[in-house]
Recover the amino acids of this structure.
């Protein structure tokens, strides 16, 4: 008979969980996700012997405490959903460290199979693991696999299915935590089962351990279920704690952790693991690290790597960008000829084709950036960047883990603050986390890139790569300073000790790079087809209606008739008619809702020198930063007086006397730091747990950007004059 069987895939970060998940289910996973779902949950399917297996990929964690959201999600899933079997993926090359999490699964009392991954890497390092012995000592099946080449997957799934069907829980005795804790735990277990405390949710022993560990989430939950019993249990915990404090000057949590490690050590030392080489020998990775994370050379190399990335991107993306642009120009011209004049045509060309095409035009740039970034990430270099920056980040009241959130948000190039804000979940201190998620949107996300690239290309064409590096550094420095400010004021307090894992270097596979690049690029394209399309149409409506009063339209018509009546020669006629068209379009824009908003905003925007057209684009940018460049394009093409320049926004701006490099620098700064886009703000609200933080980020960032842009434009103006 066939049954629905659920298997949970769990393990440390970097143990190869995603690779195994893909190898089993064949499904590609999505990295990072959009609001609506708090934590990404991936599911895949597998058929075996008539059984339909659902594989759930849990977040990677080192532990199952309640310190990070990932850990809480993973353990909540395991206790509440009770999968028939846990496939615990363990990195053979880091056996001892990985087994720490395994111990905690044992405590939960779930049927389990160990997938011993990366046996190839272990072998390269001269490590041999006796899987039969390991299995016997741990009391659970152990199947060696190489997830990367899908080796051993069939055997693993067979064993997992058997375990799930039989429901066999680990055979060996429980781990001992030393006499004091063991005695207390036994006593607590009795009381817990007598009272039936949270019996439907947790195994009694696990509950006892969590109370001893001082797990806040569980303590609160237990109190909610039965205040009296919980108080009694906590009294017991206090007694052990006092005793341990007096005898060993330590707390139960530390004792429990020590004994888990001790248990692992004893198993591994019983001939399970043999080293062929001298254990102190430096692995290739360590040798590379000696150079790449060197105190002096490390940062220099890092800057060099970034320069190379930008250079690579700008050099190679230029030609394909041209192709995409020509394609959309052709489309627009086609529509222009085929369709009859009217609002529908205008909406299709200005709203849809220019709006979406303008965004898609940057796909090649984004793709090259993503490719370079995927290379750095997959090779393990980005982890080194985080490692090196940890020391610097501490000075600013942040954490090495904040580095990843910044990078995901676009800290190197072309990220997105939405997954960036979510990436802050790995931060354990609430205040560090808040400071990180409020400053992550300062990074140059993929949506800001096009407009930055356009402005830089127009006003600082000779130094594109250098300028890109400058904006990147500026983003980091500003984010750090603001974080420091927040940590000294509204987010004053605690910081956490940092343990950073350095994964070994790996040469990325071409396939892996392509998949990563494509996933991210595809998400950008999808956004262009949905959010951006909607926003573009909305902006078109705002920029078109209510239109000019009837009488004004008739006046323009009369002007045209007058020109026609004079019957000048063909070229002059066309030019004069064009001028009238432009004036009419210009007036229509000024009179439109967007035009009025833009003009109204000049009350404040004259200080940093932004005109009303720019204001329209910036307001649109709050909906989605991608539309800034296309909206500017529309706003300027409508009013351009020089018909020759109307084709390209860059040319229009370059020939406009109002647009100086200084003004554009101020605008660059403003765009970099003003309010995060709508989606990011909603994500901040969700992650921070209060709409106030969302509002704060909108107001604070916009004010801050405004002051900075004004400073650049006004003070810069003093020096340049
Ligand atoms: P996760 O963090 O647990 O999801 O780990 P990933 O699946 O992303 O894997 C981390 C890295 O290890 C990737 O670069 C994989 O290609 C690599 N990897 C995974 N399994 C193996 C394996 O069995 N052998 C080798 N050599 N590399 C592997
Ligand atoms: Mg993964």
């Amino acid at each position: 008979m066939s049954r629905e069987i659920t298997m949970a895939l769990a393990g440390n970060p970097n143990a190869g969980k995603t690779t195994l998940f893909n190898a089993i289910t064949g499904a590609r996973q999505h990295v990072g996700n959009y609001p609506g779902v708090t934590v990404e949950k991936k599911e895949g399917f597998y058929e075996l012997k008539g059984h339909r297996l659902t594989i759930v990929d849990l977040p990677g964690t080192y532990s199952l405490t309640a310190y990070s959201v990932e850990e809480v999600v993973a353990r909540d899933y395991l206790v509440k959903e009770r999968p028939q079997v846990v496939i615990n993926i363990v990195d053979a090359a880091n056996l001892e460290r990985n087994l720490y999490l395994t111990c905690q699964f044992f405590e939960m009392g779930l049927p389990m199979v160990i997938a011993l991954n990366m046996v190839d890497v272990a072998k390269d390092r001269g490590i041999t693991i006796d899987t039969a012995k390991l299995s016997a000592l741990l009391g659970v099946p152990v199947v060696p696999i190489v997830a990367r080449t899908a080796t051993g997957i069939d055997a693993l799934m067979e064993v997992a299915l058997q375990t799930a069907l039989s429901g066999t829980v680990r055979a060996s005795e429980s781990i001992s935590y030393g006499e004091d804790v063991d005695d207390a735990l036994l006593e607590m277990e009795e009381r817990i089962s007598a009272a039936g405390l949270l019996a439907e949710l947790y195994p009694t022993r696990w509950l006892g351990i969590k109370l001893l560990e001082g797990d806040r989430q569980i303590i609160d939950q237990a109190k909610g279920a039965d205040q009296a019993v919980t108080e009694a249990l906590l009294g017991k915990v206090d007694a052990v704690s006092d005793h341990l404090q007096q005898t060993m000057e330590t707390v139960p949590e530390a004792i429990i952790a020590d004994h888990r490690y001790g248990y692992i050590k004893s198993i591994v030392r019983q001939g399970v693991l043999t080293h062929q080489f001298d254990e102190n020998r430096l692995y290739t990775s360590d040798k590379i690290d000696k150079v790449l994370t060197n105190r002096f050379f490390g940062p220099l190399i890092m800057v060099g790597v970034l320069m190379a990335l930008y250079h690579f991107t700008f050099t190679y993306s230029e030609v394909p960008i041209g192709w995409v642009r020509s394609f959309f120009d052709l489309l627009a011209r086609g529509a222009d000829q085929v369709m009859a004049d009217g609002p529908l045509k205008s909406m299709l060309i200005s709203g849809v084709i220019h709006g979406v095409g303008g965004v898609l035009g940057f796909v090649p740039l984004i793709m090259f950036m993503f490719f370079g970034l995927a290379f750095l990430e997959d090779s393990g270099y980005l982890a080194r960047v985080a490692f090196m920056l940890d020391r610097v980040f501490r000075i600013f009241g942040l954490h090495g883990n904040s580095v990843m959130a910044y990078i995901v948000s676009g800290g190197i190039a072309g990220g997105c603050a939405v997954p960036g804000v979510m990436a802050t979940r790995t931060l354990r201190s609430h205040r560090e986390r808040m400071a990180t998620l409020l400053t992550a949107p300062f990074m140059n996300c993929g949506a800001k890139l096009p407009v930055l690239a356009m402005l830089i290309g127009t006003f600082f064409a000779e130094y594109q790569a250098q300028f890109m590096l400058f904006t990147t550094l500026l983003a980091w420095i500003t984010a750090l300073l603001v974080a420091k400010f927040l940590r000294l004021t509204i987010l004053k307090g605690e910081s956490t000790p940092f343990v950073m894992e350095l994964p070994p270097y790996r040469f990325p596979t071409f396939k892996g790079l392509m998949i990563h690049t494509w996933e991210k690029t595809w998400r950008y394209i999808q956004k262009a087809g949905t959010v951006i399309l909607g926003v573009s149409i909305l902006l078109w409506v705002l920029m078109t209606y209510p239109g000019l009063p009837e009488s004004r339209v008739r006046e323009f018509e009369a002007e045209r008739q007058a020109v026609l009546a004079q019957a000048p020669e063909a070229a002059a006629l066309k030019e004069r008619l064009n001028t009238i068209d432009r004036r009419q379009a210009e007036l229509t824009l000024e009179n439109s809702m967007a035009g009025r908003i833009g003009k109204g905003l000049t009350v404040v925007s004259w200080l940093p020198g932004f005109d009303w057209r720019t204001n329209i684009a910036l307001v649109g940018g709050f909906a989605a930063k991608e539309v800034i460049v296309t909206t500017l394009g529309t706003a300027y093409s409508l009013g351009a007086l020089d018909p020759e320049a109307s084709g390209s926004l860059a040319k229009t701006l370059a020939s406009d006397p109002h647009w100086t490099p200084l003004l554009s620098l101020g605008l660059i700064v403003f765009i970099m730091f003003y309010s995060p886009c709508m989606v990011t703000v909603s994500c901040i609200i969700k992650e921070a747990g209060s709409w106030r933080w969302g509002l704060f980020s909108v107001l604070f960032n916009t004010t801050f950007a405004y002051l900075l842009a004004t400073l650049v434009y006004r003070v810069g103006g003093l020096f340049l004059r």
Observations:
- The first helix runs from residue 17 to 25.
- Confidence is low (pLDDT under 50) at residues 30-37, 639-646.
- Residues 293 and 299 are 8 Å apart (CA to CA).
- The first strand starts at residue 4 and ends at 11.
